[in-house]
Write a structure and sequence with these properties.
Layout (H helix, E strand, L loop, with lengths): L36 H14 L1 H25 L9 H33 L16 H20 L3 H10 L2 H7 L5
Helix pairs in contact: 2-3, 3-4, 3-6, 4-5, 4-6
Length: 181
Amino acid sequence: EGPAVNYQYNPYAAPQAAPPQQLQGPIAPGTPQPWTVGEVVSLGWERFKQNWAILVFSYLIVAVILQVIARVTQTALGMTADFQSQSYWVALGGSTLANQIVNAYFQTGLLRIWLGVARGQSPSFGVLFTGFDRFLPMLALTLLMGLASGLGLVLLIVPGVIVYLGLYLAPYYLVDARMGP
């Protein structure tokens, strides 16, 4: 005969509160720690002050590159101000696609910089150009997020906002945890 089995367990019962634990000694790495909003904002501001140049200028570099690509693509494809012309929509679509491709590359580098600063590291501008290893998953993720959000916006706007907010942190998981799209 085997050990006695307790059949009193009820998975549908109300959760029971555990008694508060007193923290004693050093906290093991990875263990949840108590925090307040003020502490988080203060730490974030300190990390920003220490790394403001890389945070601001890496973002501006990407923004300028994307604007240049958009303007060059629109000019090359003959974008006109006539919203009803076919050339306008071809140029707009080509410009948007080119921006999505370049953004997928640089977004990985930006996220690596932001995550490094959040972890107390001092990343360099070179990290901005390290997005090739996650390029295809990031491109797929941005296209899927755009499609899901766009479909949600067509369905009376609120579902699109909900979908966007639900997927907002997906790029961080893709880059940091190396998850798929």
